[in-house]
Design brief:
171 residues, NADH Oxidase, four-stranded antiparallel sheet
Length: 171
């Protein structure tokens, strides 16, 4: 798919079919995330792949009952890993760069999923401790986003966007 079409056609998908995701497509999504830019190319993040229904149910509970997480055949959890950024960037690496790295990787994964005909939705509302417990991540890592991925039961319509004249401030 042409890049601007991927961006234009991406939607937040909250209703998934039960069709499994082909392993080749999953690997392409993970490879795309791995190629995402990061501060100093340190990749100050970790990706947790939640395939089991039990883990996805725990993630849905941690996300305040967003049950579509468990409906998707899998979810990726992106966690900032501050220790990977700290050595080179100190406090700014801990507080900002690793979080940016995780969000960029998640965005690339989301766009890669859409390019492959899959739907996803960015989930940022969750209890950090609940996510830690669900995925077994070390306490030093900070959950940033949960990305359920699957075949959409339907494609949601486009949502209104702010006009560029309202959004862009030329200096």
């Amino acid at each position: 798919m042409e890049f601007m079409n991927v961006v234009r056609e991406r939607r937040s998908t909250r209703v998934f079919t039960n069709q499994p995701i082909e392993e080749e497509k999953l690997q392409q999504i993970l490879e795309a995330a791995n190629l995402a830019p990061s501060a100093g190319d340190l990749q100050g993040y970790e990706i947790y792949l939640a395939r089991s229904l039990e883990v996805r149910q725990a993630l849905a509970r941690a996300a305040y009952g967003q049950d579509f997480i468990q409906q998707a055949p899998l979810a990726l959890v992106f966690c900032a890993h501050p220790a990977l950024s700290q050595a080179r960037y100190g406090p700014r690496g801990v507080q900002l760069y690793c979080v940016q790295d995780a969000t960029i990787a998640c965005t690339v994964a989301m766009l890669a999923a859409r390019n492959l005909g899959l739907g996803s939705v960015w989930v940022g509302a969750f209890d950090d401790d609940g996510v830690h417990q669900a995925i077994g991540s070390p306490k030093g890592q900070q959950p940033v986003a949960v990305l359920p991925i699957g075949y959409p039961a339907h494609w949601p319509g486009a949502r209104p966007r702010r006009a560029l004249a309202e959004l862009v401030h030329e200096l």
